């Protein structure tokens, strides 16, 4: 086929049947993925995914159609780029049936965090730690008796590493956190500061593959208490709408 002349958007149209077929395939994929996941891990397992979303407003529609990510009971998001005065009504409508909880930074949108939870998930005892840009969240499934305490973190690249780790150590010493997860902007493969600290505090880093696609570094890390390490599984999920891969954690 040879094209002569300039092609404009108005010259190209998709048949409405194509849109209907894509929608049918998305629905089928969601159902298959959900059934496979339930069969694989059991109904009482807790599934939590971590992703640097690079703007929740732009990419909530991508989450909606991400069949792998939507198997999660909880989706923990960094860099939501939402400030306290930003409306989230359209985001909530798009993400339904997930419920949205925000922890917005007062002035720096890149430090804002959020979690999306399915209706059968209980969230309690939330607490903000501005000194490490951390959000502590207690999560439990309605059919599960033991809650899990998570600390979601986003460390900005230009903050003082030593001071950050000192503050983080203080928080861990005073709270029985089961899992720490977030974008630390520290490459685990070359790290000489965060890794020794977390090991000394009784935590194991469970991600072993790069998560920051463009540089091949491991910035998005998940630390679990050594006592529950044998009950935790994880997997890397590639997404097209962020330069970070998502990490899915399953408590079995």
Describe the structure.
By secondary structure, the protein is of the alpha+beta class. It has a single domain (9-251), classed as Endonuclease/exonuclease/phosphatase (Deoxyribonuclease I, Chain A). The protein has helices spanning 16-41, 56-64, 89-95, 161-173, 194-200, and strands spanning 46-52, 74-78, 99-103, 113-117, 121-129, 134-141, 148-154, 179-183, 203-205, 220-225, 232-237, 246-251. The strands form 2 sheets. Strands 3-4-2-1-12-11 form a 6-stranded mixed sheet, with helices on one face. The protein has a 6-stranded mixed sheet with strand order 5-6-7-8-10-9, covered by helices on one side. Helix 4 links the parallel strand 7 (148-154) and strand 8. Helix 2 packs parallel to helix 3 (89-95). It starts with 15 loop residues before the first helix and ends with a strand. The model has no long low-confidence stretch (mean pLDDT 90).
| H/E topology pattern | HEHEHEEEEEHEHEEEE
Rg, please? Answer: 20 Å
Tell me the CATH architecture: 4-Layer Sandwich
How far apart lie the N and C ends? 54 Å
Report the CATH superfamily: Endonuclease/exonuclease/phosphatase
Instruction: Write down how many β-strands occur, each being a DSSP E stretch of 2 or more residues.
Output: 12
Helix/strand/pairing class, anyone?
A: alpha+beta
**Beta-strand content bin:** 25-35%
Helical residue percent band: 10-25%
How would a textbook summarize the main sheet?
Answer: 6 strands, mixed
Q: How many separate domains make up the residues?
A: 1
Provide the residue-averaged pLDDT.
90
